[in-house]
Amino acid sequence: MIRKIKILLIALIVLTLNQSSTPVKTAAPSGPNIILIFMDDMGYGDLSCYGALDINTPNIDRLASEGIRFTNFLSAQAVCSASRAAILTGCYPNRVGISGALFPASPIGLAKEEMTIADLLKQKNYATGIFGKWHLGDAQEFLPLNQGFDEYLGIPYSNDMWPVNYDGLPAKTGTNKYRFPPLPLIRNSAPVDTVRTLEDQALLTSRLTDEAISFIRRNKKKSFFAYIPHPMPHVPINASAAFRGKSKQGLYGDMIQEVDHNVGRIMDALKKEGLEKNTLVIFTSDNGPWLNFGNHAGNTAGLREGKGTSFEGGQRVPCIMKWKGTIPGGLVSNQLASTIDLLPTIAKLAGAPLPEKKIDGLDLGEILKGDLLASPRKNFLYYYRKNSLEAVRRDNWKLVFQHPSRSYLDQAPGVNGFPGAAPENVMMNEALYDLRRDPGERYDVQAYFPEIVKELKAIADQAREDLGDDLQKKEGSNKRQPGKLTK
Length: 487
What we know:
By secondary structure, the chain is α/β, with parallel strands linked by helices.
């Protein structure tokens, strides 16, 4: 009996020693970390890996060489608030009732009932933070902490919505800018600072990056979603003193190179914290360049028109994704894709259920695995203004309907921050474009391909039943309302 007790005691001691010497394993994150960098008014041709001249973007180029670069990637709409509603909800923005660019004290915002990427990832216990421009309603009930985010540092709307003129001087009495309130920098739900001068604007890129890096380090032991919607290159642009005069493209090039430097800082932080292999980094833009600002605006790389239009220069944007060890390096995807496809793609990677309400995005996962022939998106709808269906697309065929549009063509651009003319109601004629041969949308080929026109018009008719079309005075049956102030 005594012998058996000794044997049991020895076994218990050995077991205890083994347990104490074995490292305690923490639970693995539920899905990859997500970093979404969303530029404001960056053109398709503003990065050196997309053909920019005299602007060097080595850190962003490295993302492309180590991941995948999309050449046929579309913003959902070519304007600020609409494009942000789309990227966060996976919906065409007119489906969720958001259009145009919301102004300070807007009575509407993104509805609380809409599920954002942040809401979706909170279901999988992600930490969620936004560092940059929100622009989906500046009332307290519309701010990011009510849309799935744990923390926020940034501005509530565009950086030109302030009482300051284009030259940095106070706006003159009676002008539109004079009526704007001071531009607040908000932390979580309350202002903590004010952006008063162009020199304050110059510090935004690095200040927001500092906050994003702090968030990454504080949440490195769990899955996180860092949304970084930079306020620039939307005018007014500026660069900090360390970057001024560093490019051959003036202040615009200096500012883009500072953005590139700060992307590099984020990538360095991921590497230092050992997070590269569990982090998907996405870099894209909300729409094309605001061309009438001339040397303070970006480059469409030859695509037609720019911001505020449904032509390719307004909606085709750079998009790069990197996930070390998962996305093969050096890939180029020419397949049609859009910002609305990010939510379902991220949901699948995180193992999170899709929203119960209808969305428009499609999962790009097969492309990210390296299948460059995968083509989940065949069609795309070019809505603009409040709810006007201005064009439809199937693969590389694009049918533009007759519609009034902004146009930069034959207009002299402004210089040094001041805008040139950009008429808003130029009538565009119906035309069919083969974007494979004619990405500049110059040659109408309707007469040669009547069967393609018929197919595209059928797609448009389906869209009008679903979402409506102001151009044809059709309401649609599946639109939802924006959030509205309750007080």
